[in-house]
Design a protein that fits this description.
By secondary structure, the chain is of the alpha/beta class. The chain has two domains: 3-299, Aldolase class I (TIM Barrel); 313-414, no CATH class. 39% of the residues lie in helices and 9% in strands. The chain has 15 helices and eight strands. It has helices at residues 3-16, 89-101, 118-135, 152-161, 174-180, 186-209, 234-245, 276-291, 296-299, 313-320, 334-338, 345-354, 362-367, 372-375, 389-401, and strands spanning 58-62, 107-111, 141-145, 164-166, 221-227, 250-257, 327-328, 379-380. A six-stranded parallel beta sheet has the order 1-2-3-4-5-6. A two-stranded parallel sheet has the order 7-8. Helix 7 links the parallel strand 5 and strand 6. Helix 2 crosses helix 3 and helix 4 (152-161) packs across helix 6. The longest helix has 24 residues, at 186-209. Bound molecules: iron/sulfur cluster. Iron/sulfur cluster (SF4) binds next to loops.
């Protein structure tokens, strides 16, 4: 690799690191004769830089960090005085191939600042993916971030080469987006999302009739929202996520705790550190929406619009609803088992499958992965429970399970109200 490309790599990898909307899961394509690579993670995969511990085994890179926009929350905004660089299409393609051959990466996550206009930039991104697939026969994973406002034609072309595409919402409400990124609007984000959705559905339909019809974005789409840069509550954020998950192609919504990269901008809150606990709670709530059959209104409501920072949202729900507990693990239905703190999807399935053969006790529950330290207050089983939520009261359980470490004042947003 020559010095010029190396210095561009340093700049553009650094610029890309704040985007968390990447994941290599969701598509399975094995090695093929005459092609290079696969999308199945395995041995020898190197993890790329992540100062803050996030992801990745992809080459996570920007095509350019020049940008005509001035989004307040972004390190690459045009008014920032930072080192800038641009890869040519061939440079980025060759770099990806070189890294892949050396087994540094399992795929590519490519995004870009906007130069000239959305379509000019998008067209260059499409060329990267197209050259990798058609010229270099690259069969590894490609996640391509669509440029807001890109035309339907370019999004449709990109979808033929990318495994996953994403368009970042960034700010959950239009009003706050306009305040921080005046050149953007939600329409320019939701339109490409719609094109992707339509492309996937159309491709699925075509493949029913023609087996070899091309696949379109086989790993679906994802998006990202920044958390803590604006005034939206967790309820606002989760309502939007829930609406997005109703689209069959939306696989993941990523939540990125706002990192104060532009502390000088007075439109942004003065945070000492990113709201990582809140980010984590949102991921847990997201998990409840997708795998535990919770609705947003059960997790947060107008009385409790923000998630507790002290407890995960499932424990929070259980503490507010003692009337559902204790649950008898030997008779309760699967849906109710899923609601017990300390019982996950896998252990709920195992409980339902195994109790047909014998009544379950604490020993068997432990073997199935149930976290008894939490679950014990919410269940009954073969052995008599020592004390459940009714004997201990929700407040008593809060004290028993409260994290030992003290959080700073501004991190604490405990909003339990047990008077319901
Ligand atoms: S358009 Fe993207 S790269 Fe450009 S300033 Fe906004 S967020 Fe940053």
């Amino acid at each position: 690799m020559n010095e010029k490309v190396l210095s561009k790599l340093k700049i553009l990898a650094e610029s890309a690191k704040y985007d968390v909307s990447c994941s290599s899961s969701g598509t399975v394509r094995r090695n093929k004769a005459g092609m290079l690579g696969n999308t199945v993670g395995g041995w020898g995969i190197c993890h790329s830089f992540a100062d803050d511990g996030r992801c990745i085994s992809l080459l996570k890179i920007m095509l350019t960090n020049y940008c005509i926009y001035d989004c307040a929350y972004c390190i690459n905004r045009r008014t920032n005085d930072i080192p800038r660089a641009t890869f040519s299409v061939s440079e980025l393609v060759e770099l990806t191939m070189e890294f892949y051959r050396r087994n540094y990466i399992e795929g590519l996550f490519v995004s870009s600042g906007v130069v000239r206009d959305a379509d000019y930039t998008m067209e260059r991104l499409v060329r990267v993916a197209k050259d990798l697939r058609t010229v270099h026969r690259f069969n590894g994973y490609i996640h391509l971030k669509s440029i807001p406002g890109a035309s339907r034609e370019l999004v449709n072309e990109a979808g033929l080469y990318a495994d996953r595409m994403s368009v970042n919402i960034e700010i959950p409400t239009e009003e706050n987006l306009k305040r921080l990124a005046p050149e953007k609007d939600h329409q320019s984000v939701f339109a490409p999302m719609r094109y992707i959705q339509q492309g996937v559905l159309q491709s699925a339909e075509e493949r029913k009739h023609f087996r070899h019809a091309p696949r379109f974005v086989p790993a679906g789409q994802s998006t990202q929202m920044i958390v803590g840069a604006t005034s939206e509550t967790d309820q606002d954020i989760l309502q939007l996520s829930s609406a997005l998950y109703r689209r069959s192609t939306m696989k993941r919504v990523y939540y990125s705790g706002y990192i104060p990269v532009n502390a000088y901008d007075t439109r942004l809150p003065a945070l000492k550190q990113p709201p990582l606990v809140r980010e984590n709670r949102l991921y847990q709530a997201d998990w409840l929406l997708r795998y535990y059959h919770f609705t947003v209104d059960e997790i947060v409501d107008s009385a409790h619009p923000n998630l507790s920072l002290d407890f995960d949202p499932k424990l929070g729900w259980a503490l507010r609803h003692p009337e559902y507990f204790p649950v008898d693990v030997n008779t309760a239905d699967y849906e109710m088992l899923l609601r017990v703190p300390g019982i996950g999807v896998k252990s709920a399935r195992l409980i339902v499958a195994s109790r047909r053969f014998s009544r379950l006790g604490t020993y068997q529950l432990k073997q199935m992965g149930v976290v008894l330290k939490r679950a014990r207050y919410f269940i009954t089983c073969r052995e008599l429970p020592v004390q459940t939520i009714h004997e201990l009261t929700p407040q008593g359980i809060v004290q028993l399970l409260a994290p030992k470490k003290k959080k700073s004042e501004d991190e604490r947003q405990l909003c339990f109200d047990f008077s319901e």
